[in-house]
Every structure is written in structure tokens, then in C-alpha cells.
């Protein structure tokens, strides 16, 4: 009988959990998060010393692998964090805060905040990303709409909904963006910033893509209005398949996502799609990649009341 992944020691033993995280965050040995030093660092061995505590003898400060990460100042055991990471990274359509609350034995408030910290680990952290695609690569672009804008009057069309634009590279990654309006200006800026100009751009026949496509070496469209969804290799079925998973997660698992937090949920679904089985990344490897993304992404809990309608 095969052994369950969840039997791994780092999911049940706190010492093993620290070693697991340290091996991924510090592959070449501990680094002081206070001064950046890598020399004259030693692990503290006292009986009353907290697990995983080191001391840097360059700046004379103590630290653990949690400092400067999404784990900093958290009272949740690290092994519980790792359990939550595996659950979120392996659940294709997401896992609700209520389910995490019941499964991990933490409060609902803790589970909700924990999940948002993990979504930060799934993000690119604001890094300048290289363009998608390139010579011989196809990138599909499409837009979809979700939920309802606060205070907007419901009427025909998508004007009262939140607009999402996704860029999907065939056999590669996806990048999704919550935009205020879908037009040639906003979408054009995204494409210029995130897609290599020598890529093969594939879209539907919406008017907004006509002027944008002039910048790319090749642009092909499918006419959805005429019932055309594929013409040989020309299709937007990949990005629409991504939207299918996204909508099932947002509507079926999370049920309500506010405008303020929508971008974090997009990071979550993008991360799982970009690190899927088809790209050679299984659930264990996906969790490893999430652990490597914890550094420099502190998310503090704000107790002050947020202004209604504010966006991130």
C-alpha cells in the first residue's frame, strides 16, 4: 500500500517542520534577516530556547526562519502552516476558510487570515516578470466577469461586474488581472508589459483587440459570434478552460469574494495553473514552490475598519 503524502514528518513534528522550511528558504545555510549576514551564525541549543532559533554574531540579534516571511509573528505552529499550504496547493478549485477551520482545528478568523497570507506566498511579490511567449509560442487572451460591483445598478451586460483579463501561454503559465474596465487601453498596456511581441497572439473577435494586435508579429482570432470555437490550432479554449476552473472555485467554493481581495484569489488560481501536473509539477512540488515564495511578503492584520468600496 502506498504511503500518504500527509504522513510526512514535517506535517506532524515541529522540529521537522522548521528543518523542511529552512531547507527551502536557506538552501545554502541560514541568512540573518536583520543584517543579511551569512557568517558567524550559530543555532542556539539551550533547553528553554524556542525551536529553530539562531543568533547572528555580526548584528547580535536572534532570529528564526519565520522572520521576514508570511509566518512572522504568527502563533500557529509551523507544522499547521505546512498542512494548510498542502491543502491549498493541492485543491484545484480552492479550499474555503470554513473547511480549513474545521480541518486544522483553528478559529475561523485565523483560517481566513492564514489563507490570505498563503495567497501572498503564491503571488509574484511585485517582481518584474519576463514577457510570456516568444518566437513560436502562442498566448491566448480573453476577459471574463465576476460578482457585482458595490453600489452598481444591475443591468444587461457586464458593466456591473468585476472585470478579469487573463493571459495564458500554451503549455505554460497564466497571469490574471482585475481591471476596472476592459478596453483597448487597459488591455493593451497589459499585453505590452507581459507578452513578447514575437508571440502568436490568439483572441476572440472582440473589437478591442483589433488595434492592439498590430504590435504583435501574428494575431489570430476565432469568431464566437458565428459559433466558431477552434480553427485548427487557433482557439481560445485554453484560457476559457482556465476561466471554467476559476469560476467553479469563486462561485462554488468561496461563494463571495470582495473587490478588495479579488486579486489575491487570482494569484491563487494562477499559481496552481502555472504549477500544474501538465508542466511537470505535482502536489508535493507545488507545495515546495509555495514555501519558497514566503520570503518578504508580510501581511499584517488591520483591525481598523476599511472604507467601504476601497480596492487593493
Overview of the structural elements:
With 312 residues, the protein is of the alpha+beta class. The protein is 34% helix and 15% strand. It contains 9 helices and 10 strands. The chain has a 5-stranded mixed sheet with strand order 6-5-4-7-8, sandwiched between helices. α3 crosses α4 (108-122) and α4 (108-122) crosses α8 (262-274). The longest helix has 18 residues, at 237-254. The radius of gyration is 22 Å and the shape is elongated.
Secondary-structure element string:
HEEEHHHEEEHEHEEEHHH
What structural category do the secondary elements indicate? Answer: alpha+beta
Order of adjacent strands in the largest pleated sheet: 6-5-4-7-8
> What's the average pLDDT?
91
Q: How would you sum up the major sheet?
A: 5 strands, mixed
The number of helical segments is 9
State Rg: 22 Å
- The shape, in one word, is elongated
Beta-strand proportion: 5-15%
Secondary structure: number of strands: 10
Low-confidence runs (pLDDT<50, min 5 residues)? 303-312
For the record, give the distance between the C-alpha atoms at the N and C termini, rounded to a whole number. 48 Å
Helix content: 25-40%
Amino acid at each position: 500500500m502506498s504511503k500518504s503524502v500527509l504522513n510526512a514528518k514535517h506535517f506532524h513534528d515541529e522540529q521537522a517542520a522548521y528543518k523542511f522550511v529552512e531547507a527551502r528558504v536557506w538552501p545554502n545555510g541560514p541568512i540573518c534577516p536583520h543584517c543579511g549576514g551569512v557568517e558567524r551564525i550559530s543555532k542556539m541549543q539551550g533547553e528553554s530556547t524556542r525551536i529553530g532559533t539562531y543568533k547572528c554574531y555580526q548584528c547580535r540579534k536572534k532570529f528564526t526562519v519565520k522572520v521576514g516571511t508570511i509566518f512572522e509573528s504568527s502563533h500557529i505552529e509551523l507544522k499547521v502552516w505546512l498542512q494548510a499550504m498542502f491543502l491549498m496547493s493541492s485543491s484545484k478549485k480552492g479550499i474555503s476558510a470554513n473547511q480549513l477551520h474545521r480541518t486544522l482545528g483553528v478559529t475561523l478568523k485565523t483560517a481566513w487570515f492564514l489563507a490570505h497570507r498563503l495567497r501572498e506566498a503564491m503571488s509574484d511579490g511585485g517582481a518584474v516578470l519576463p514577457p510570456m511567449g516568444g518566437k513560436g509560442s502562442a498566448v491566448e487572451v480573453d476577459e471574463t466577469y465576476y460578482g457585482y460591483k458595490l453600489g452598481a445598478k444591475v443591468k444587461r451586460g457586464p458593466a456591473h461586474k468585476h472585470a478579469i483579463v487573463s493571459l495564458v501561454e500554451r503549455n505554460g503559465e497564466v497571469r490574471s488581472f482585475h481591471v476596472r474596465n476592459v478596453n483597448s487601453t487597459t488591455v493593451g498596456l497589459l499585453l505590452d508589459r507581459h507578452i513578447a511581441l514575437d508571440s502568436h497572439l490568439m483572441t476572440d473577435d472582440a473589437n478591442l483587440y483589433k488595434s492592439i494586435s498590430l504590435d504583435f508579429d501574428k494575431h489570430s482570432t476565432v469568431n464566437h459570434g458565428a459559433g466558431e470555437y477552434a480553427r485548427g490550432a487557433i482557439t481560445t479554449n485554453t484560457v476559457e478552460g482556465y476561466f471554467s476552473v476559476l469560476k467553479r472555485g469563486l462561485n462554488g467554493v468561496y461563494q463571495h469574494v470582495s473587490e478588495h481581495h479579488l486579486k489575491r484569489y487570482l494569484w491563487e488560481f494562477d499559481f496552481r495553473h502555472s504549477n500544474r501536473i501538465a508542466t511537470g509539477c505535482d502536489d508535493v512540488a507545488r507545495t515546495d514552490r509555495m514555501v519558497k515564495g514566503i520570503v518578504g511578503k508580510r501581511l499584517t492584520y488591520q483591525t481598523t475598519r476599511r472604507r467601504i468600496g476601497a480596492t487593493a
